[in-house]
Design a protein that fits this description.
Strand content: 25-35%
Order of helices and strands: HEEEEHEEHHHHEEE
CATH architecture of the domain at 20-119 and 162-204: Roll
Largest sheet: 9 strands, antiparallel
CATH class of the domain at 20-119 and 162-204: Mainly Beta
Distance between the termini: 15 Å
Radius of gyration: 19 Å
CATH superfamily of the domain at 20-119 and 162-204: Electron Transport, Fmn-binding Protein, Chain A
Structural class: alpha+beta
Number of helices: 6
CATH topology of the domain at 20-119 and 162-204: Pnp Oxidase, Chain A
């Protein structure tokens, strides 16, 4: 197992914290840094079946996990119908996995804007150009529209499109998995009760 530098104490093998957000803060990028790792976002589809896709973790603010999308997207419609989701984040190089399940709510306009400003130029452009009409176009037309948009906007800063939206998940359940090559893997499960207190269990890996 490879442990990331400076993170030897942030495993599930040592004395577990009473609050899982403390452990999450040791695993996730610090607040205010660049967008975090990719993750699988699972929502409840409008047909009742699970619906999953890979997105960026935009931010962990110590209490909630933020992500952003086009407000015309399928996931936006699913969250409007059922504002609950799960996130699965995997660090293969550190033999770690974090699964977070909870309630989802829109972020503020300021939070959405800060997340857009933190995106790379490519992702900022993608938020403008990559719509449903473009998705059905030929490869040549898609590249032409991309190039035309870049030439039109130049190198100046981009404002977020009106379709840019953000969400934050407040955890109700958190599952930390830690792998190993010299022993069994381990899972640490937390669940928040109605009073806001966390209950902790160790599960087989």
């Amino acid at each position: 197992m490879t442990v990331l530098p400076g993170e030897a104490a942030a495993t599930v093998d040592g004395p577990p914290p009473a609050d899982p957000l403390v452990l999450a803060a040791a695993w996730l990028p610090v607040d205010g840094s660049a967008p975090g790792p990719t993750m699988t976002l699972s929502t409840i589809g409008l047909d009742g079946y699970p619906s999953a896709r890979t997105v960026l973790l935009s931010r962990f603010d110590g209490q909630r996990l933020h992500f952003h999308t086009d407000t015309r997207s399928r996931k936006a419609a699913e969250l409007a119908a059922v504002p609950r989701a799960s996130m699965t984040i995997v660090w293969p190089e550190a033999a770690r996995q974090l699964v977070v399940t909870g309630d989802v709510a829109p972020v503020t306009d300021r939070e959405a804007r800060l997340a857009y400003d933190a995106r790379t130029r490519y992702l900022q452009m993608l938020a403008w150009v990559n719509d449903a009409d473009l998705a059905g176009a030929t490869v040549e037309l898609r590249r032409e529209r991309w190039t035309a948009f870049g030439e039109e906007r130049g190198d100046g800063p981009l404002e977020p499109p009106t379709t840019w939206g953000g969400y934050a998940l407040t955890p109700l359940r958190m599952l930390f998995w830690q792998g190993a090559t010299d022993g069994p893997s381990n899972r640490l499960a937390y669940e928040r009760d109605a009073d806001g207190r966390w209950r902790r269990e160790a599960w087989p890996g």
